[in-house]
Amino acid sequence: MEQNSNKKGNFIGILPLIVFLVLYMSTGIFTGSFDNMPLMIGIMIASGIALALKKPGETRPTTFDEKVSMYCKGGGEETLILMVLIFLLAGAFYGIANEMHAVESATNLGLSILPSRLILPGLFLIGCILSFSMGTSMGTVAALMPIAVDIANKTGFNIALVSGVVVGGAMFGDNLSFISDTTIAATRTQEVSMKAKFKANILMVLPAVIINCILLSMQTSSTPITQAVYDYNIVNLIPYAVVIVLSLIGLNVIKVMTIGVASGIIIGIIHGDFTLVSSLGIIHTGMTWMEDMSLIAILVGGMVALMNYLGGIDWLLEKLTRKTKTARGGELSIAALVSLLDIATTNNTISIIAAGPIAKEISDKFGIARERVASILDLFSSAFNGLLPYAGQLLVAGGIAKISPMSIMPYVWYCILMLIFGTIFILIGWPKFKKKDIAKVEANLQ
Question: Which residues constitute the domain of residue 380?
Answer without folding.
Answer: 11-445
